[in-house]
Write a structure and sequence with these properties.
The complex is a heterodimer of chains A (114) and B (115).
Chain A: E1 4-7, E2 10-14, E3 19-25, E4 31-37, E5 44-49, E6 55-58, E7 61-65, E8 71-76, E9 85-92, E10 103-104, E11 108-113
Parallel strand pairs in A: 2-11
Antiparallel strand pairs in A: 1-3, 3-8, 4-5, 4-9, 6-7, 7-8, 9-10, 9-11
Chain B: E1 3-7, E2 10-13, E3 19-26, E4 32-39, E5 42-52, E6 55-58, E7 65-70, E8 73-78, E9 87-94, E10 96-97, E11 100-101, E12 105-106, E13 110-114
Parallel strand pairs in B: 2-13
Antiparallel strand pairs in B: 1-3, 3-8, 4-5, 4-9, 5-6, 7-8, 9-12, 9-13, 10-11
Classes of the chains: A mainly beta (114), B mainly beta (115).
Chain lengths: 114, 115
């Protein structure tokens, strides 16, 4: 089945540093999504990407849909303690259709030291 | 605005007991509904999805079943729980209209511990 390779698995950074994480796939995806999950809660959507090459920002977060459609990255600038959590990438191979299913990466655990 | 509710938030059940987790969505109609399981805080595995009332697709063979008795209600069940059913269960919804698939939006999950 489809698999997403997300890296790094974990990161320990100092407050104020920038962060970068990425996802790669052997298959082409038509949609890339980035989620953040806080402990004991469900994942929350951060950024959605729908076109190859698309670069989208949400506050201090920036994500890009790779031009090969097989990868995506997420950058967080000037990290703060509340950025702590697990970040997931997710992709969908089909751009349409009612049976829309996402494939998730295994997540990047981010720890920010104040 | 749309909201999704899951309950209970936590559950401890003995092996062999039945299970019923409920998920409801408000503020939208005819959503696609999904059940995911997350083990050890990482890796979301799709268990079931539904595109309409009574329509259930299973992704992996397992001890669980799902039902959608109403448009915005999705239920995850088991007749006899196994230890391996422990985990964090997440319900999600999305929609498809005019060739556009929305991102999925998740509930806050149910932490199930089978003892």
């Amino acid at each position: 089945g489809q698999q997403l390779n997300q890296s790094p698995q974990s990161m320990f950074i100092q407050e104020g540093e920038d962060v970068s994480m990425n996802c790669t796939s052997s298959s082409i995806f038509n949609t890339w999504l980035w989620y953040k999950q806080d402990p004991g809660e469900g994942p929350v959507l951060l950024i959605a990407l729908y076109k190859a090459g698309e670069l989208t920002s949400n506050g201090r977060l920036t994500a890009q849909f790779g031009i090969t459609r097989k990868d995506s990255f997420l950058n967080i600038s000037a990290s703060i303690p509340s950025d702590v959590g697990i970040y997931f990438c997710a992709g969908c191979k089909h751009s349409g259709g009612s049976n829309y299913k996402l494939t998730f990466g295994k997540g990047t655990l981010l720890t920010v030291n104040p | 605005s749309q909201t999704i509710h899951q309950w209970p938030a936590t559950l401890v059940q003995p092996v062999g007991s039945p299970l019923s987790l409920e998920c409801t969505v408000e503020g939208t109609s005819n959503p696609n509904l999904y059940w995911y399981r997350q083990a050890a805080g990482r890796g979301l595995q799709l268990l079931f999805y539904s595109v309409g009332i009574g329509q259930i697709s299973s992704e992996v063979p397992q001890n669980l079943s799902a039902s959608r008795p109403q448009d915005r209600q999705f239920i995850l069940s088991s007749k006899k729980l196994l230890l391996s059913d422990s985990g964090f269960y997440l319900c999600a919804w999305g929609f498809y209209v005019n060739s556009y698939n929305s991102p999925l939006h998740f509930g806050n999950g149910t932490r199930l511990t089978v003892t």
